[in-house]
C-alpha cells in the first residue's frame, strides 16, 4: 500500500485560483471515483471564509467534501478522519495548529490514517506539518524552525520564492549547520512524496519548482526535483 503526501508551497483554492489543477491532482491520487476529502482549517482558527472557499471549489469537483472545526462544537474526529480518502490541511499558524491537534489527539489520528493509506495534503502550514521540522512564520517577528509531525524525515520551507525572508533564512540555517538540507517549495508548486520519499515536484503554475537546498564545499546548492507540469 502506497502512502502519499502532497505538500504545496503556496497557492491553490486559498488564493482564489481558478484552475484547481493541484486540487484535482490530489483527488486523482485516490482510487475512488468520488473520494471523501476532509479540510482542516485549524491553522486559521477555523476561519469561516476559508471554509467557504474550500466548499466553493471542492463541491464542483468529483469528491465528497467535509471539514472538522475545533473552535466550535467538534465532531467525532476519529470516526471522521478514519473514514476519509484524502485530508487537506490549510495554511495559517502552524505552532497553534499543532498545539490544538496534540491536545485533541488529532496528531496521532492523522498518523494512523496515513498508515492506513489516507492521502495527506495541504498548503503552507499544511505543507510543513508532515515533516520532522518546518520553517514557519508562526511568530510575527522572525522565521523559526518548528518541530512538526515527522511523517517525512527532514526540514521543509514553503513560499520559497514568494516571501523575501525565506531564501536568506534557509541559507543561514544551513551555514550555521542547524539543518543538513531543506526541501524548499515555491508558490505554485507542490512536492509529492510516496512512502515518505520524494517522488516529483508538481508544478501547477508555469515553471515553478521544489529544491533540495544543501551545502557543498560551503556553497549553497539548489537542486531542483524532477517535475510534473500540470
Task: Kindly describe this structure.
With 230 residues, this protein is of the alpha/beta class. The chain has helices at residues 21-28, 48-58, 77-82, 94-104, 106-115, 125-128, 166-175, and strands at residues 4-8, 36-40, 64-67, 86-89, 119-123, 131-136, 144-147, 152-157, 181-185, 189-194, 197-203, 210-216, 219-224, 227-229. Strands 3-2-4-5-1-10-11-14 form an 8-stranded mixed beta sheet, with helices on both faces. Helix 7 links the parallel strand 8 (152-157) and strand 9 (181-185). The two termini are 25 Å apart. The model has no long low-confidence stretch (mean pLDDT 95).
Q: How would you summarize what this structure contains?
A:
This protein has 230 residues and is of the alpha/beta class. The protein has helices spanning 21-28, 48-58, 77-82, 94-104, 106-115, 125-128, 166-175; strands at residues 4-8, 36-40, 64-67, 86-89, 119-123, 131-136, 144-147, 152-157, 181-185, 189-194, 197-203, 210-216, 219-224, 227-229. The chain has an eight-stranded mixed β-sheet with strand order 3-2-4-5-1-10-11-14, with helices on both faces. The protein has a six-stranded mixed β-sheet with strand order 7-6-8-9-12-13.
Q: What would the keywords be for this entry?
A:
globular; eight-stranded mixed beta sheet; single chain; 230 residues; alpha/beta; six-stranded mixed beta sheet; 26% helix
Amino acid at each position: 500500500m502506497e502512502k502519499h503526501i502532497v505538500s504545496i508551497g503556496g497557492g491553490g483554492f486559498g488564493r482564489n485560483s481558478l484552475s484547481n489543477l493541484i486540487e484535482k491532482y490530489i483527488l486523482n491520487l485516490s482510487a475512488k471515483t468520488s473520494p471523501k476529502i476532509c479540510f482542516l482549517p485549524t491553522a486559521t482558527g477555523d476561519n469561516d471564509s476559508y471554509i467557504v472557499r474550500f466548499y466553493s471549489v471542492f463541491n464542483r469537483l468529483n469528491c465528497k467534501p467535509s471539514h472538522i472545526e475545533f473552535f466550535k462544537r467538534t465532531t467525532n474526529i476519529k470516526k471522521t478522519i478514519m473514514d476519509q480518502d484524502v485530508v487537506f490541511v490549510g495554511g495559517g499558524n502552524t505552532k497553534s495548529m499543532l498545539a490544538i491537534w496534540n491536545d485533541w489527539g488529532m496528531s496521532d489520528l492523522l498518523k494512523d490514517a496515513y498508515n492506513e493509506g489516507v492521502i495527506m495534503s495541504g498548503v503552507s502550514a499544511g505543507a510543513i506539518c508532515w515533516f520532522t521540522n518546518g520553517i514557519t512564520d508562526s511568530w510575527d517577528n522572525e522565521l523559526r524552525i518548528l518541530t512538526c509531525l515527522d511523517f517525512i524525515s527532514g526540514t521543509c520551507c514553503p513560499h520559497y520564492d514568494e516571501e523575501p525572508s525565506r531564501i536568506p533564512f534557509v541559507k543561514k540555517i544551513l551555514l550555521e549547520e542547524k539543518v543538513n538540507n531543506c526541501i524548499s517549495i515555491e508558490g505554485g508548486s507542490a512536492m509529492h512524496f510516496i512512502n515518505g520519499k520524494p517522488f516529483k515536484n508538481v508544478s501547477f503554475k508555469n515553471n515553478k519548482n521544489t529544491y533540495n537546498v544543501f551545502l557543498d564545499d560551503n556553497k549553497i546548492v539548489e537542486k531542483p526535483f524532477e517535475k510534473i507540469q500540470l
